[in-house]
Amino acid sequence: MNIGDVSECCGLPAKTIRYYEDIGLVQPARRENGYREFARRDLHKLAFLGRARSLGFSIKECRSLLSLYEDRKRSSSDVKAIARTHLDRIDRKIEELQALSATLRDLVERCQGDDRPECPIMDDLARPAPNEHPAPLMSRASSKCDNASLENRSARM
Amino acid sequence: MNIGDVSECCGLPAKTIRYYEDIGLVQPARRENGYREFARRDLHKLAFLGRARSLGFSIKECRSLLSLYEDRKRSSSDVKAIARTHLDRIDRKIEELQALSATLRDLVERCQGDDRPECPIMDDLARPAPNEHPAPLMSRASSKCDNASLENRSARM
DNA sequence: CTTGACCTTCCAGTGGATGGAATCTCTATC
DNA sequence: GATAGAGATTCCATCCACTGGAAGGTCAAG
User: Fold this and answer.
1) Is position A24 within any domain?
2) Minimal Cβ distance to B87: which of A74, A84, A101
3) Rounded to whole angstroms, what are the CA distances from B125 to A37, A45, A70?
4) What domain range includes position A90?
């Protein structure tokens, strides 16, 4: 099978398939004319890769999964470990994005969205810093960011 | 102010600040010795950029936001439009990830995770295709992916 | 004078492809 | 046999937003 057929058949662009060969995920044979010749085994691997990538596994994880796929004596615990790591990563990402979403939604809702310049979104972006660990008031005097420091340092040279 | 101080003060790595200069987001002055000299205005811009990036806005969006930030006659509707587009993108991403998470969670839960090779995760990955649009049975005979086609095409040269 | 912190530039690499150019190779048709 | 067009090949560049590291200049303290 030529690359175009494989592409159509496993849903991966030909470019991607060449790329996968390049990074060693598949090793299709070559014909005399230089064309790649994909065997059933290559097709299976590519379909496997396509599915794994669509589930968000990284190429590195795909490599591991692929070697487990081809290992008859694999332990399902190894597969599960990779999947769980990935799942945890996804869930952490979801939480991050939900926090972002909440913040943005609040800002967007509070913004009038008219032709005047006043805007809570801008106010948030321009605000000094998200004081997660608010410093004691006295320590501000020695901050590198206040005006005095700025002038001093500007004048230093 | 030197880049190191700016870095500490606005929380962006020096490398990032240089990069932001490189792509034209800030234009700090230069001293005679070649060192960058950041003024208050640059500090504000960098802090703004740091916050905007931490909210997930792309550099391109940051560029737009920054020019709105410096435009006294801006319309808050322009700001809001950018933020809403971004919010929508985040929410779409969350949905995607939640679907992934659900699929993966199901697979992980069904996997024994022992020393035997049987594994629902592998079974899923190795499965032909996620038949979102299941083809009529008869059409499989002409698929490029069945054995006959494979052999034919392999034998063609 | 030396040390070490800080600054500079430039180049390369990350991940995972994707776009495009220039150049074969095959097949079909005239 | 000529030719057109599809499909294959390679290689190089590009995307995003940095980040790492090398090689070298500058500055303040001891």
Assistant:
1) yes
2) A101
3) 23, 10, 12
4) 84-127
